[in-house]
Amino acid sequence: MSTSTSTPAPMGSGAEFSEGRRWLQLAVGVVCMVATANIQYAWTLFVPEIQETFGWERASIQIAFTIFVLVQTWLAPIEGYFIDKLGPRMMVAFGALMIGTAWVINSQAMSLPGFYLGAAVGGVGVGCIYATCINNALKWFPDRRGLAVGLTAGGYGAGSAATILPIAAMIDSSGFQETFFFFGLLQGGLAFIAAWFLRAPAAGEVKVSGKVSQSRRDYTLKEALNTRLFWLMLLMFTCVVTGGMMAVAQLGVIAVDLGVKEFEVNLYFFTMAALPLALMLDRVMNGISRPLFGWVSDHIGREKTMVIAFSLEGTGIIALGYFGHNPWAFLILSGVVFLAWGEVYSLFSALAGDAFGTKHIGKIYGVLYTAKGIGALFVPIGNVLMEATGTWSTVLYTVAGMDLFAAFLALAVLPKVLNAHVAKSTLAPATPVIEGKAGTASAHA
C-alpha cells in the first residue's frame, strides 16, 4: 500500500517504549495460543476412536467440528466488543475456563449432542483467547504487524506439535475419554495462569515505524462493509480457508481411506506411524508459515505473498489427491498444504489493519473472520461428496480449484481494488491513530 503511515503516539504521554516489554507480552500471548491449539488440531485423532466406540457415522461426528468453528468464528464481532471493554486478562482467563470445560464435557459425553455441546463451549473459549492474543499483538507491534500476528497465530498453528504424540499415546493406552479429561485440565490451567500476565499498552508505550504502510484513517464497520475491498477479501479468505479446514478435520480419515495410516516410517533414528508423524510435521509447518509469510508480506506486500502462498497450496492439494496413496508423498504433501495454508491468518488480519485502520478492527476483522465458519460448512459436505464419488480426489481437486481461483484474484484483481481503496482513503481527512488503549485492534487467526 502506498499510503502515509499513522501518527506515532507521542513519547512521554504515558509509559515509555520498551522493546523487551512488548516482546514479553508477545511471548505470553504465544503461550496462551499453544495451550489452546489442540481443541482444533488434535480433534482428528479422536474421531476414529469415537466412531469405533459408538458406531456413529463420520459425517455426524464431524458436525461437532463444524459447530466448534462456527461458534468460534461467528462470535468474533461480539468478542471484539468485549476485548475493548474488559481487557486481555479477563477475556483470556474466561476463555481458558471454557476450553478446559469443553474437554471435560467431551470426556463425559455419551451422545452426539454431548459432543456438540462440548464443541460449542470450546468454540467460545478458543474464540476469546485467539481474538485477544492477536488483538494484543497488533497493539504492541504496529511497526511489525505481519511478523507479530504471524508469530502469535503460529503458536496456535504449531502449538499442538509437541503434544500430538502424547495425546495419541494416551488414547491408545487409556482411551479417548481419559485423554480428553487430562489434557483439558492441563491446557486450560496453563492458559488461565498465563492470562494474568497480559495487558494492553499504554499511550506512548509503542511506536509506529515509517517502514510499514498503514491507513491514514480508521474505517468504521459500516464504512468497511461498503467497500469492494472488504467483500473481495471475504471471498478470497473463504476460498483459501476451505481447503485448510478440510485437511485439519479430515487428515486422519483421509489417511485411513488412502491406506497409509498404519504405515511405519523408518527415519533411521526412530520409527513412527505415518499419520502421527504427518500430524506433527503439519503442525510445525503450519506454525512456521504464519510468521514466515507475515514477515515476507511486510517486505514484498500482502498481494504478492498471497499469490505465492495460494498457488502453492492449490498445487499441493492436487498433488496430495494424485500421489497420496504413497506414504512418503502423503507426509511431504500434507506438510506443503499446511505450510501454504496457515499464512491466511496473518495475511488477512494484517491487510485488514493496513486497509481499514486499527480503531475498529475488532469488529471489521471479526466479520471478515467468519470466512472460516463458512469454510467449515464444507467439512461434512466433504464426507458426503467422498462417499458419493468413492474417492477423496474429487474433494481435494475441488478445494484446490478454490485455492487457485483465490491466487488469480490476488494477482489480477486485488492490486487494482486495493490501490483504488488507498487512493480514495487519502482523499478523506486523516484520522490520527494513537497506538495504545485508544487505538484498539482485534483480529483472529
TrEMBL record:
A cellular component term, taken from the record's GO annotations: membrane
Keyword tags: Membrane, Transmembrane, Transmembrane helix
InterPro entries membership: MFS, MFS_dom, MFS_trans_sf, Oxa/Form_antiport, Proton-linked_MCT
PROSITE patterns membership: MFS
Keyword Transmembrane attributed: yes
Membrane spanning residue stretches: 23-43, 63-83, 90-109, 115-134, 146-168, 180-198, 229-255, 267-285, 306-323, 329-352, 364-382, 394-414
Protein name, per record: Oxalate/formate MFS antiporter
Gene assigned in the entry: oxlT
